[in-house]
Write the structure tokens for this entry.
Amino acid sequence: MDIFELRLALQDGSVAVLEVSGYINNEAGEAIATQARRLLESGSRTLLFDLHATRIINSIGISLLLEVLEGVLAVEGTLAFCSLSPGIAKTFQIMGLAQYAKIFTDRETALAELSARS
């Protein structure tokens, strides 16, 4: 399996970008949820997850992303994802995550739209 890494790539005003690489399982999902909570507590209202280096996510990882979604919605924020692999994009559609989060093809497009909204 790919080694999980999480990096805060950008925090500008209310927008934060997190780069995620590797397999998103229960441990990785917990790390993502913890970082998302910290960002929301520090004033970020738009969280963009760049998944260009992530190819697989398990059901526990999805459930933890849904937890992140709940936290973002609680502060009337926006959750977004970009650079999804076809498999993850399909999983997000099936699990309903794509109905509540913004999905973008790449980071540049996402930041252009999300920054204009914030």
User: Anything to note?
Assistant: Residues 26-41 form the longest helix (16 residues).
